[in-house]
Amino acid sequence: MTLGRRAFLVAGPALAAVASFSSAHAEENGLPSTDPRMGPRVLGSPDAKVQVDEWFSLTCSHCAHFAQTIFPQIKTNLIDTGKIRYRYHDFPLDQVALLAAMLARSLPADRYAPFVDDLLRTQDQWAFAQNIDPIQELKKRAVLAGISAAEFDKINADNALREAIVNRQDRDGAFLQIQGTPYFRINDVPAPDVVSSYDAFAKAVAKAS
């Protein structure tokens, strides 16, 4: 999904690389540098020779397609086998995606990836289905993930977290010249062709090994 104007992302609660890319600057965003919500979100062995970084938006249809059709093979064949370390970067392109990212980062680190995966796989059901309120659908899915209704409202009102995510996104977007999502880097080298198929992804990983 290509980028559009995002000034509205920090307007308030959602309604109805730098060496380690941008993980080290939470204190600049109104959050302490030790805030665990802004820590790395990764899958795979820290000893893997290849690191894959993905920037994604939870309301991006291209991101959802990748998650549904290609990522399961990546998880089985490359992450679980220790061949790659896979790092997630939130890059929300609208208010709904921003709130979804805030919810994901408010979960314990080991529950971030399953929640993101669920939202991407079911995107058509909670984000774009007819006659639904995506915020209320997010609330339902958050409850299933262990976030109570009261906690949901508190997260939605957390402007420090909201701004931290958006400010990190701005830095990554400017530094890496990200023009759309999903955006990938393999061992810190842009990898624009990996979204076409699992074979293309695996070939790029093999080349970087």
Please outline what is shown here:
The protein is of the alpha+beta class.
Describe the structure.
By secondary structure, this protein is an alpha+beta fold. It is built from nine helices and five strands, in the order E-E-H-H-E-H-H-H-H-H-H-E-E-H. The chain has helices at about 60-70, 70-80, 95-105, 110-120, 125, 135-145, 150-155, 160-175, 200-209, and strands spanning about 40-45, 50-55, 85-90, 185, 190. A five-stranded mixed β-sheet has the order 1-3-2-4-5, with helices on one face. Strand 4 (about 185) and strand 5 (about 190) form a beta hairpin. The longest helix has 18 residues, at about 160-175. The chain is globular, with a radius of gyration of 16 Å. The model is unreliable at about 5-10 and about 10-25 (pLDDT under 50). One of its GO terms (molecular function) is oxidoreductase activity. It comes from Gluconobacter cerinus. Keywords: Disulfide bond, Oxidoreductase, Redox-active center, Signal. Belongs to the thioredoxin family. DsbA subfamily.
Topology:
Layout: E1 42-43, E2 50-56, H1 61-69, H2 71-79, E3 84-90, H3 95-106, H4 109-121, H5 123-126, H6 134-145, H7 149-156, H8 159-176, E4 183-186, E5 189-190, H9 198-208
Question: Which keywords apply here?
Answer:
single chain; 209 residues; alpha+beta; 5-stranded mixed β-sheet; 11% strand
From the N-terminal CA to the C-terminal CA, the straight-line distance is: 29 Å
Spatially, the strands of the biggest sheet line up as 1-3-2-4-5
**Mean pLDDT metric:** 90
Using DSSP, what is the number of strands?
5
Order of helices and strands: EEHHEHHHHHHEEH
Strand content: 5-15%
Radius of gyration: 16 Å
Principal-axes geometry comes out as: globular
Helix content: 40-55%
Unreliable segments (pLDDT under 50, ≥5 consecutive)?
4-8, 10-24
Structural class: alpha+beta
The biggest beta sheet is recorded as: 5 strands, mixed
Helical stretch count? 9
Organism: Gluconobacter cerinus
Protein name: Thioredoxin-like fold domain-containing protein
Family: Belongs to the thioredoxin family. DsbA subfamily.
GO molecular function, one term: oxidoreductase activity
